[in-house]
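User: Design a sequence. Structure:
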C-alpha cells in the first residue's frame, strides 16, 4: 500500500483524493496491526508505540480532512446583494459580476445565485456523500468508460434526489423578486459554475 501511494506521488498519477484517503485507510490499518503484533510479541517493550501511532494517524487524518462546508442558508444570493466575501458562495463569474456592480457601479444583468450552501445541503439532505466518495475512490480518470460510468451513476442519483423544500422555497422567492424587477415576460437563463 505504501508503494502504491509512493507511485502515485512520484509518478504524479492523477487520481481523485478519495482514492488517496482509501489507500491511507488501508495503510493505517496495516501499521496498526504491526504495532499490535509487536505488542503481543514483547508486551513491555513497545508500550508507547501505539500512542505514537495514534498521534501520527490523527495528524495525518486531520491534514487530509476536507474543508468544513456550510449547509445552512443562504441558499440563494442576489447579484445586487452579493457580499464582498461571497466568492465561495457563488463562484468566480457571478462574484465578479457582483463586484463590478458593487465597486464600479456598472450595469450588469439582474440575477441571483443558487449558492454552494444549497449544493452541500442538497448532498446532505439526500445522503449522497457516501455514493459520491465511493465512485470517486474507484474512478480511473484515464479511462473514458470509467469516467462515463461514474458520471452517469452520479447524474442519475442527483436526478432521482429530492430538492429540499427550504431550497425550493428560496429559489422560487428569488425568481419572483427577479421577475418583479425585470417584468413577468422576462426570459431567464441558467448557467452552472465550476464551483
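Assistant: Done.
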Amino acid at each position: 500500500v505504501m508503494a502504491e501511494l509512493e507511485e502515485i506521488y512520484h509518478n504524479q498519477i492523477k487520481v481523485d483524493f478519495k482514492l488517496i484517503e482509501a489507500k491511507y485507510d488501508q495503510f493505517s490499518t496495516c501499521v496498526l496491526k504491526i504495532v499490535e503484533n509487536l505488542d503481543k510479541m514483547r508486551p513491555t517493550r513497545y508500550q508507547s508505540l501505539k500512542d505514537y501511532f495514534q498521534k501520527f494517524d490523527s495528524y495525518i487524518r486531520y491534514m487530509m480532512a476536507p474543508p468544513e462546508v456550510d449547509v445552512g442558508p443562504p441558499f440563494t444570493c442576489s447579484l445586487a446583494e452579493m457580499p464582498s466575501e461571497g466568492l465561495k458562495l457563488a463562484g468566480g463569474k457571478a462574484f465578479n459580476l457582483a463586484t463590478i456592480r458593487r465597486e464600479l457601479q456598472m450595469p450588469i444583468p439582474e440575477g441571483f445565485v443558487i449558492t454552494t450552501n444549497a449544493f452541500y445541503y442538497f448532498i446532505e439532505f439526500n445522503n449522497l456523500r457516501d455514493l459520491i466518495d465511493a465512485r470517486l475512490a474507484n474512478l480511473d480518470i484515464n479511462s473514458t468508460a470509467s469516467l462515463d460510468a461514474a458520471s452517469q451513476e452520479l447524474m442519475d442519483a442527483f436526478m432521482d434526489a429530492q430538492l429540499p423544500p427550504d431550497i425550493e422555497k428560496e429559489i422560487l422567492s428569488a425568481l419572483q423578486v427577479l421577475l418583479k424587477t425585470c417584468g413577468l415576460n422576462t426570459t431567464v437563463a441558467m448557467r452552472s459554475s465550476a464551483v
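The CA atoms of residues 11 and 64 lie 20 Å apart. The chain has a mean pLDDT of 90.
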